[in-house]
Design a protein that fits this description.
Length: about 400
């Protein structure tokens, strides 16, 4: 039976600091509305929905600060509006599915059990994602739900980037480098190809910088290396996540400080990063106070230093660089972070125009720059919708 006209695909994206959602027409694949629930940051927590023309349909403050409460509020709104927006499917961004779950797939009880067993790999995300799926199963029984994994884009990384130097038995147990933010990288790569298909043959670095942050090297359209590894805790320093640490640090915390595994998990995932350095995980707040707050300066300097260092590493991995793309909430909206991250990268051929950068212009490199540097808004929800559609087109 064909998908009924007037039905919609709902996409759900549970981030570490917000819930994002959107509705897409199931036959025309046009976006109908989009919304979010901000859960942290300097702005007031708000439940916000707008239509395809950016007209506000609903916007009000919320008291809660949990993904669960945000999802419950969204489901109530959808149930109250189900005649106007009948759902045919829900697509979920799922951060981690282990070695056997990379490609999009229908959510089953068996898959949910597997995801439950993998929570330790992504504690900031997976528990909320599983909880969200179950809420929608209860609110919309019979509606098809699809898992869209953030690791999918990185599945073809070469062995030298994928495997840890540990006994092979651990590799067989799934202890490998997965990479994350794959939906974002897939969207950006697709957009570049739309503009000029030749970009798929070039050497590209994409810096997805937000509360969670990572950098990926894309060569000939394929992810060949990325900063995150086994879990979204690794790589760059982030809002509340430590990023890469010497294994000796973990051993010290376990042996000398006698932290339990759960306490170590909580520390590295939710109490480290910019928050640990400066008391806040919000980059805009840090930028506002950097002149009078040395801790804010320290946090910004470390973040940009690590971004710069990893841009150099990814360029080395590809043997050169043609294009550097900044995306994500910080990457798209913080000129100073881009400026600091690109300082002294002239040896790679990177030169940015200060005026274009301050104006958040799409192309921010100078005409003389050998490497093009640009901003490109990502859209993980669009990728979720695209991955969900094949599962309902012949339903």
């Amino acid at each position: 039976m064909a998908t009924p006209s007037g039905s919609y695909i709902l996409t759900i994206n549970c981030g570490s600091s917000s819930l994002k959602f959107s509705l897409w027409q199931s036959q025309t694949f046009a976006i109908e509305l989009l919304g979010s629930v901000a859960l942290s940051g300097p702005e007031e927590r708000c439940f916000h929905i707008q239509d395809k023309d950016r007209q506000i349909l609903q916007s009000h403050p919320v008291m809660h600060a949990s993904i669960r409460s945000a999802v419950l509020e969204l489901t109530v709104w959808l149930l109250n509006n189900k005649r106007r927006y009948p759902l045919v499917a829900v697509g979920h961004r799922i951060v981690q599915g282990g070695p056997d779950h990379r490609a999009p797939e229908i959510i089953t009880e068996k898959l949910l059990k597997t995801l439950q067993e993998l929570i330790y790999l992504a504690p900031n995300h997976l528990s909320d994602e599983i909880r969200t799926i179950k809420i929608f199963q209860t609110a919309f029984p019979g509606i098809r739900q699809v898992a869209c994994f953030d690791t999918f884009f990185h599945q073809d990384m070469p062995a030298c980037a994928k495997y840890y130097p540990l006994p092979e038995v651990y590799r067989k147990h799934g202890l490998i480098r997965y990479g994350f933010h794959g939906l974002s990288y897939e969207y950006i790569t697709g957009k570049l190809a739309e503009k000029d298909h030749a970009w798929l043959k070039r050497k590209i670095i994409i810096a997805h910088l937000g509360n969670g942050a990572s950098i990926t090297a894309v060569k000939n359209g394929i992810s060949i290396d990325t900063t995150m590894g086994l879990s979204p805790v690794g790589g760059l320093v982030m809002g509340t996540r430590s990023g890469d640490l010497d294994p000796g640090v973990l051993l010290y915390l376990l042996k000398r400080e006698h932290l339990t595994a759960d306490q170590l998990d909580e520390l590295l995932s939710k109490k480290a990063g910019l928050l640990a350095i400066a008391g806040t995980s919000d980059m805009q707040t840090l930028l506002q106070h950097q002149e009078e707050d040395t801790k804010a300066q320290e946090a910004i300097t470390l973040f940009c230093y690590q971004v710069k260092k990893n841009i150099g590493a990814m360029a080395a991995a590809m043997g050169g660089l043609d294009l550097l793309v900044f995306t994500g909430g910080i990457g798209e909206n913080c000129p100073l972070i881009r400026e600091y991250s690109c300082n002294n990268l002239g040896f790679l051929g990177i030169s940015i125009d200060q005026q274009l950068n301050q104006a958040n212009h799409r192309l921010i490199s100078t005409p003389e720059s050998k490497v093009k540097v640009q901003l490109l808004a990502t859209d993980e929800e669009a990728m979720i919708a695209q991955h969900t559609y094949p599962f309902i087109k012949n339903q």
